[in-house]
């Protein structure tokens, strides 16, 4: 069947519209017999629960479904056009995380009298997050890529903050997770009345700006020469898109996939003019979310539990994201602008020695010095000395080994991928590892750590294979790999949220585990991971010559007679195994795999062998510090090590980004 | 000494002495208790107990022993309230990851953990003998399991007699509260017990939950009989209360102010029959995932609430 390309979007909308009509008819059918349709729509019988339920729950839910889908898809279309990146979405710019953080803090701390301000607070949180992201990325040569990266960093930073809050307020976990997973349930018209005018204002503003948007789509240089004030336009359009998004998220929670996938899918279907794209996105998004929510509603109550709409939406969307990745033509990407001048402060040998000395001193301090309710405490030869030392050693070494493993993994991925932003955390390998373990734990009841570790490792390796399949030529476009990883992480994140709403009291354990805790680690596990890391590090160092060649790029390397694809494949496999084993101990979000190789390169470790060694030393040091802080900072409370490392890591990148403006 | 007694005194006196010694074998014979991870053997009843969740905390206190180490004591005040914590104990931090060094410093001779912490069993057992006991999340009815857990803890700390007395008194109270509830509750309207989880979601307790099993023990039955999660409750929007509207609604505290404000102003809430006809009752703070003391407290608070009348 050959269909004219321009008909596909219209056909898609028509199918979705028909499905919407079917949904509406199904919902209202029970009232057809009692001749109450008009009544139930406008003025329900105050004594009939079914009528009240339809009028105050089902009907607003249908309308909210459409409004949210339409608003998010429109915002996504606008943002994608502005950023010229088919994988950009409101949620990738930190807005979702900002709203979530603000609302979590508000829900836990605010008195009842402040309830009317809840939405305003959430809105402010989203706007502030976007502001931060924009400040970091503004006036960079490669602003498009930086915006996504900054969004990701701010996302992670805010998510870490939210998690710390939740860890200390366990009882409220369920309610925040329900919202965080995207919840369209309605108890009245209040939310609809809140969202409706805001979405309409946002829509009108964006449509008014849609002509300049078409100019933007031509690229910065062209648009500037056409006289449009590029920066100002970007800020205004992004601002309105975020305004819509934040209003929606503060009312119904995270529903991220619609804003990402609908406009991207329509673009692939052949829509190029921004005005068309936005109009179609609006309707397709609205109809799509309404229909998906209908299916979700049918599944509620199975096993006495709820399926949250937002998270379920991401599941429905997973195949689409894969499709988009395969079809999308990422805008011609410049190589990252991330070429650091070497800062040879001291010679590398001296630096290595210093790092090594710090590590040794740090280990001794970690073992003998701690904080308790009386302040600093030094371990003396009192009873239990040996046991305490063993236990501290277990956790300290677990952290150090993980730091080293992630550093090696990150270095390999960055060098072979020739992408200074790639890392096991960002490419989704770590998330996949954690996800595999969580699914095994929550849905299949595996409880033994050995089993879980095997399952996790398998998950990590499979995800890397998928990633490699998706971008066979990933070394040509650095941010292609990055965006793939981002999509993968987003899908996995949705699954994790579903698992968390179902986790019962395991939830708090899962959170601290996701955030990376050495609490459940045993010496045997540390030894195994240490062994794996040592062997693979040795292999990597032996392979440093071909690794050096690989970092020049496929073309040169091949002309130098190296079978680059087989070699790349092997190295990436090593990296995945290392990342998976480290994730098992400290969780998926530590950022060490990104930060350590990065720092090592800045410090002047340029050749592959030195780069590996430097990264290992830096990674081990960072994790050691994070582990000590996690154990002692809030004694007797134990913070997750991975969370502290992530705070250090994201803080570092924020500083780096601000400094380099 | 026995030989000397034998030589100096007559046979009856010896028999009495023998009786006394056979009556106190507890000191000599080791105690064995089966738990979720095998059998625990103790030389002596434990005196210094460390507890890592609130069901254990309240159970140990109810048995007349002050735990030496307690997890999440601050939140305990907000969510469990009574029995009062002892004046002096070691704070272990969060229940999800009790601080092992603080635990060691408390020098316990028995540690109680539930299966959520079982992955760290070896670390705990290296500090002191550790029992894994779970009341929830295991497809069992809450109240009988809580009772079993109390009896096992009692054996481990040598308070079996105290446990027997306590449980017997509690059974009497359950019966008494049952009668009072039957007299006080709105006639012909079964009891629904709920928790407000978010502005749009509630937990509706079912038969296997602590509230459900306590009601059954008192000869009453919980209204909701539908599907539940393995924590004994169904989660859902306010609409799952629709079919329950002819019942009497009892909700547990604490309810965050934000949630209360939103639910109370919602049309869907206002239309429900129990709201319109004043059959909504409120319980002060009570831990629906606790042990026997929480079960008793729930019964008592429910009685008092029903006797003092609905929420205005």
UniProtKB/TrEMBL annotation, chain B:
<dbReference type="InterPro" id="IPR051313">
    <property type="entry name" value="Bact_iron-sidero_bind"/>
</dbReference>
<feature type="domain" description="Fe/B12 periplasmic-binding">
    <location>
        <begin position="48"/>
        <end position="310"/>
    </location>
</feature>
<keyword id="KW-0732">Signal</keyword>
<dbReference type="GO" id="GO:1901678">
    <property type="term" value="P:iron coordination entity transport"/>
</dbReference>
<dbReference type="GO" id="GO:0030288">
    <property type="term" value="C:outer membrane-bounded periplasmic space"/>
</dbReference>
<keyword id="KW-0406">Ion transport</keyword>
<dbReference type="Pfam" id="PF01497">
    <property type="entry name" value="Peripla_BP_2"/>
</dbReference>
<keyword id="KW-0410">Iron transport</keyword>
<protein>
    <submittedName>
        <fullName>Hydrogenase expression protein</fullName>
    </submittedName>
</protein>
<comment type="similarity">
    <text>Belongs to the bacterial solute-binding protein 8 family.</text>
</comment>
<dbReference type="InterPro" id="IPR002491">
    <property type="entry name" value="ABC_transptr_periplasmic_BD"/>
</dbReference>
<keyword id="KW-0813">Transport</keyword>
<keyword id="KW-0408">Iron</keyword>
<feature type="signal peptide">
    <location>
        <begin position="1"/>
        <end position="28"/>
    </location>
</feature>
């Amino acid at each position: 069947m050959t269909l004219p390309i321009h008909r596909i979007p219209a056909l898609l909308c028509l199918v979705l519209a028909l499905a919407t009509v079917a949904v509406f008819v199904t919902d209202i059918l029970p009232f057809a017999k009692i001749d109450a349709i008009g009544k139930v729509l406008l003025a329900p019988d105050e004594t009939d629960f079914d009528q009240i339920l339809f009028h105050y729950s089902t009907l607003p839910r249908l309308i909210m479904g459409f409004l949210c889908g339409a608003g998010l898809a429109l915002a996504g279309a606008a943002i994608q056009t502005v950023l010229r990146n088919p994988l950009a979405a409101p949620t990738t710019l930190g807005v979702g995380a900002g709203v979530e953080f603000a609302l979590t803090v508000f829900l836990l701390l605010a008195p009842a009298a402040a309830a009317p301000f809840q939405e305003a607070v959430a809105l402010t949180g989203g706007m502030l997050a976007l502001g931060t992201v924009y400040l970091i990325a503004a006036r960079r040569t490669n602003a498009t890529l930086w915006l996504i990266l900054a969004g990701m960093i701010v996302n992670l930073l805010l998510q870490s903050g939210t998690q710390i809050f939740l860890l200390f307020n366990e009882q409220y976990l369920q309610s925040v997770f329900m919202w965080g997973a995207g919840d369209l349930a309605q108890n009245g018209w209040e939310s609809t009345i809140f969202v409706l005018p805001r979405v309409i204002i946002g829509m009108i503003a964006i449509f008014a700006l849609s002509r300049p948007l078409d100019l933007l789509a031509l690229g910065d240089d062209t648009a500037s020469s056409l006289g449009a004030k590029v920066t100002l336009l970007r800020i205004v359009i992004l601002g309105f898109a975020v305004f819509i998004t934040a209003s929606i998220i503060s009312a119904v929670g995270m529903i991220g996939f619609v804003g990402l996938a609908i406009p991207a899918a329509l673009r692939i279907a052949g829509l190029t003019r921004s005005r068309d794209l936005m109009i179609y996105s609006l309707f397709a998004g609205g109809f799509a979310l309404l229909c998906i929510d209908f299916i979700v509603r049918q599944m509620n109550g199975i096993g006495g539990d709820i399926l949250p709409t937002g998270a379920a939406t991401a599941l429905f969307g997973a195949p689409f994201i894969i499709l988009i990745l395969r079809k999308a033509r990422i805008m011609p990407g410049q190589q990252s602008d991330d070429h650091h001048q070497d800062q040879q402060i001291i010679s590398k040998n001296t630096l290595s020695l210093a790092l090594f000395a710090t590590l040794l001193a740090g280990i001794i301090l970690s073992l003998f010095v701690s904080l308790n309710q009386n302040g600093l405490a030094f371990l003396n030869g009192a009873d239990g000395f040996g046991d305490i030392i063993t236990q501290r050693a277990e956790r300290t070494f677990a952290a150090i080994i993980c730091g080293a493993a992630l550093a090696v993994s990150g270095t390999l991925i960055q060098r072979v991928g020739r992408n200074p932003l790639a890392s096991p955390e960002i490419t989704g390998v770590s998330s996949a590892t954690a996800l595999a373990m969580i699914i095994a734990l929550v849905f299949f009841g595996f409880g033994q750590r050995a089993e879980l570790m095997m399952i996790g490792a398998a998950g990590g390796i499979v995800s890397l294979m998928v990633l490699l399949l998706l971008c066979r030529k990933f070394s040509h476009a650095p941010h292609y790999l990055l965006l793939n990883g981002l999509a993968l992480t987003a899908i996995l994140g949705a699954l994790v949220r579903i698992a968390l709403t179902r986790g019962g009291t395991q939830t708090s354990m899962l959170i601290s585990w996701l955030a990376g805790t050495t609490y459940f680690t045993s010496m045997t596990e540390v030894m195994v991971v240490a062994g794996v890391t040592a062997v693979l590090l040795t292999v990597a160092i032996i392979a440093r010559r071909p690794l050096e060649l690989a970092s020049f790029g496929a073309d040169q390397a091949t002309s130098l007679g190296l079978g680059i694809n087989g070699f790349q494949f092997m190295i990436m496999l090593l990296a995945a195994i290392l990342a998976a084993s480290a994730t098992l101990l400290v969780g998926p979000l530590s950022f060490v795999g990104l930060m350590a190789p990065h720092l090592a390169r800045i410090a002047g470790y340029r050749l592959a062998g030195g780069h590996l060694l430097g990264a290992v030393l830096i990674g081990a040091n960072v994790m050691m510090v994070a582990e000590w802080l996690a154990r002692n900072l809030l004694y007797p409370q134990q913070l997750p090590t991975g969370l502290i490392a992530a705070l250090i890591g994201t803080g570092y990148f924020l500083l780096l980004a601000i400094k380099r403006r | 000494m026995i030989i000397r007694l034998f030589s100096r005194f007559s046979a009856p006196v010896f028999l009495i002495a023998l009786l006394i010694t056979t009556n106190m074998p507890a000191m000599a014979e080791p105690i064995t208790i089966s738990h979720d991870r095998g059998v625990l053997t103790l030389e002596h009843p434990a005196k210094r107990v460390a507890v890592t969740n609130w069901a254990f905390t309240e159970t140990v206190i109810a048995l007349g022993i002050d735990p030496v180490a307690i997890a999440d004591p601050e939140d305990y005040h907000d969510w469990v309230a009574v029995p009062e914590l002892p004046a002096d104990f070691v704070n272990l931090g969060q229940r999800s990851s009790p601080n092992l060094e603080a635990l060691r410093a408390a020098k316990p001779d028995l540690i109680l953990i539930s299966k959520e912490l079982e992955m760290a069993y070896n670390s705990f057992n290296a500090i002191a003998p550790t029992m894994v006991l779970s009341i929830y999340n295991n497809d069992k009815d809450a109240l009988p399991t809580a009772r079993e857990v109390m009896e096992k803890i009692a054996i481990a700390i040598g308070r079996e007699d105290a446990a027997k007395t306590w449980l017997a008194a509690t059974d009497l109270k359950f019966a008494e509260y049952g009668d009072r509830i039957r007299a006080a509750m709105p006639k012909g309207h079964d009891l629904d017990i709920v928790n407000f989880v978010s502005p749009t979601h509630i937990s509706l307790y079912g038969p296997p939950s602590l509230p459900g099993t306590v009601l059954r023990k008192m000869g009453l039955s919980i209204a909701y009989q539908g599907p539940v999660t393995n924590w004994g409750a169904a989660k859902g929007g306010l609409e799952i209360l629709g079919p329950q509207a002819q019942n009497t609604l009892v909700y547990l505290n604490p309810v965050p102010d934000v949630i209360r404000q939103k639910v109370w102003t919602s049309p869907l809430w206002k239309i429900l029959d129990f709201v319109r006809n004043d059959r909504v009752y409120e319980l002060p703070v009570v831990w629906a995932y606790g042990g026997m003391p929480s079960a008793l407290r729930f019964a008592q608070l429910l009685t008092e609430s029903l006797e003092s009348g609905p929420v205005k």
